[in-house]
Design a protein that fits this description.
With about 425 residues, this protein is an alpha/beta fold. It folds into 2 domains: about 220 residues, Rossmann fold (3-Layer(aba) Sandwich); about 160 residues, no CATH class. Strands 3-2-1-4-5-8-6-7-9 form a 9-stranded mixed sheet, sandwiched between helices. The radius of gyration is 63 Å and the shape is rod-shaped. The two termini are about 115 Å apart.
């Protein structure tokens, strides 16, 4: 199915005003081609060719777009209507084989429009004529000032340029102006002024919406003014006024929008500053939170460690108290035992002196051991008395006593206190 691209008119897919604007040209041309052989160059979807076939002897519609020709063939048929693929610079008909060439809204699409005009002269019979239309560049540029140039147009014409180009190939050119009113009106340029007044539409070519020309090699009777009244009213003029009003309102709204954008820009700057402050505070808060969490974990670990140490200290204090009590008992026992053993040592010394005369060296060591043992006993006695203040020192000294080689030696020979418990 042919698709409306924004330029080729497809019935049912375009605005009614645009369709009426194109149909009006074919309604205008239909009486002029009555009974003639017609070539519709650039026929597009074929609706115009079908309209011309209602009065012409035969109509051939040609277009360079295969999809357009396919659409035309599938939608329009008549015994005197045919469609053919063809380029406007190589029209698909023989020399001097048609009485009229119709080319509506085609010439502005061609880079080589002069080649097209020469090609129409080739296919036209000597008394044939070219019926051609094109937009007025001045009006069209104003109408599209917001949308920009039409990308489908290669060259647009002003009035004098259009007339000059046509007259270069056709000695006789009658120009008409096509305008939108409450209808679509066709009137001659410089023709009957009364007709222009009766039509009530602009009479100057510079104000026309489109140009329509009848071109021929021999004089042709000028076409009469023509008015096309569509089945749906054409509201283009009112729409243009409405668009102008909307444009004014848009300009005011654009001013308001620029002011709002400036305010928004200022608010955006303030917002960015606040956002930067917020992010800095958030980062600082996050860092402080991490520090607090780490500190909390450290305090919890330290608290747990303190509890363990307190338990250990309590256990050690209890053990120390038990040790002190045990040492107090031991000291009392040792004092009693010291007196007894001192006497035993004295007696033993006398006995050993008598018995170990031959072993003087060994006896001397034993005497020294006994003297050292006595000194340790005295030291332990003083240490036991000071045990309440120096529990730790008592433990070290007790360990020293236990580690003494003299004590171990004394134990081997049955001398000295039993300290293993």
């Amino acid at each position: 199915m042919a698709e409306f691209t924004g330029e080729r008119v497809i019935p049912g897919e375009v605005d009614e005003d645009l369709l009426n604007e194109h149909l009006a040209r074919y309604f205008f041309a239909a009486p002029l081609v009555a009974g003639l052989r017609v070539l519709d160059a650039g026929c597009g979807a074929g609706y115009g060719s079908a309209e011309l076939a209602g009065t012409a002897a035969h109509v051939t519609g040609c277009d360079c777009a295969p999809e357009a020709i396919q659409y035309a063939r599938s939608h329009y048929s008549a015994p005197n209507l045919a469609f053919a693929d063809g380029d406007c610079l190589a029209l698909p008909v023989a020399d001097a084989s048609v009485d009229a060439v119709v080319a509506f809204e085609v010439i502005e699409h061609l880079e080589d429009w002069r080649g097209f005009l020469a090609e129409t002269r080739r296919v036209l019979a000597p008394e044939g004529f070219l019926l051609v239309s094109t937009p007025n560049r001045l009006y069209y540029a104003e109408a599209r000032r917001d949308a920009g140039p039409n990308p489908f147009h290669c060259h647009e014409f002003e009035f004098e340029e259009f007339r000059a180009e046509l007259q270069a190939y056709f000695p006789h050119v009658t120009l008409m102006m096509e305008n939108h009113a409450a209808c679509v009106a066709f009137q001659p340029v410089g023709g009957n002024g009364d007709a222009a007044i009766r039509l009530g539409v602009p009479g100057a070519p510079e104000e026309a919406h489109f140009f329509v020309a009848v071109c021929s090699a021999v004089p042709q009777p000028p076409p009469h003014p023509f008015v096309f009244v569509p089945s749906t009213a054409n509201v283009l003029r009112e729409r243009e006024r409405h668009i102008a009003k909307l444009t004014s309102e848009l300009a005011r709204k654009d001013e308001w929008l620029e002011t709002a954008k400036a305010d928004l820009s200022a608010l955006h700057v303030d917002h960015q500053k606040l956002l930067a402050m917020y992010r800095a505070q958030a980062d600082d808060l996050a860092a402080r939170t991490r520090w607090a969490e780490a500190l909390s974990r450290d305090l919890e670990e330290r608290g747990a460690r303190v509890n363990v140490l307190q338990d250990e200290l309590a256990a050690e204090q209890a053990a120390a108290r038990e040790t002190v009590a045990a040492y107090e008992d031991t000291v009392a026992r040792l004092e009693e035992e010291n007196v007894r053993k001192t006497e035993w040592a004295r007696q033993t010394e006398e006995r050993l002196t008598a018995e170990l005369t031959a072993k003087a060296g060994e006896l001397a060591r034993c005497v020294a051991f006994l003297q050292e043992t006595e000194g340790h006993l005295e030291e332990r006695t003083r240490w036991a008395l000071d045990l309440d203040r120096q529990v730790g020192a008592l433990t070290d000294r007790l360990n020293l006593v236990r580690a003494s080689r003299w004590v171990r030696a004394g134990r081997k020979i049955g001398l000295g206190p039993a300290l293993d418990s």
